[in-house]
């Protein structure tokens, strides 16, 4: 059976997309994988990619421009949580019991072209359609 999100995006999938499913991993490994996929996709050495993954142990990720001084590393360490920096912007996100997704594609790909809000809407619609197929 094909992934619902892949099916939902099929009409705009030229070139075809790659789906990567990873088990829970350390935050540093998760960010390194996302960066490697970004580099490969940017250079057209890899197809556009949807990556689904989780975090173990829990991890706080900071946006690329957020100062690390915003965070109490002692408080994180006391809980056994890790700290990483994302290659994307935004503020801190605590990753605990969740499924994370990364959509990585060249800027000219129809799924992500246009404004950030437009691409978020297309991706969110595909995710919702996929979840509806599961129910």
TrEMBL record:
Alphabetized UniProt keyword annotations: Transferase
Transferase keyword on record: yes
Record's keyword annotation contains Lipoprotein: no
Any one GO molecular function term: transferase activity
PROSITE patterns: BPL_LPL_CATALYTIC
Pfam family, any one: LplA-B_cat
Highest taxon in the source lineage: Bacteria
Domain BPL/LPL catalytic: 44-135
PANTHER family with a match to the protein in the record: OCTANOYL-[GCVH]:PROTEIN N-OCTANOYLTRANSFERASE, OCTANOYLTRANSFERASE LIPM-RELATED
Protein's name according to its UniProt entry: Octanoyltransferase
Taxonomic source organism: Anaerolinea thermolimosa
């Amino acid at each position: 059976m094909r992934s619902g999100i892949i099916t939902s995006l099929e009409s705009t999938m030229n070139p075809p997309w790659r789906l990567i499913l990873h088990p829970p991993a350390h935050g540093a490994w998760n960010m390194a994988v996302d960066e490697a996929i970004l580099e490969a996709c940017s250079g057209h050495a890899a197809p556009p990619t949807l990556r689904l993954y989780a975090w173990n142990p829990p991890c706080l990720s900071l946006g690329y421009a957020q100062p690390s001084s915003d965070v109490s590393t002692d408080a994180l360490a006391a809980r056994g949580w890790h700290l990483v920096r994302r290659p994307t912007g935004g503020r801190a996100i605590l990753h605990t019991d969740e499924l994370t997704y990364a959509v990585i594609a060249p800027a000219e790909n129809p799924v992500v072209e246009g404004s950030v809000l437009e691409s978020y809407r297309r991706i969110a619609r595909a995710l919702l359609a996929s979840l509806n197929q599961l129910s």
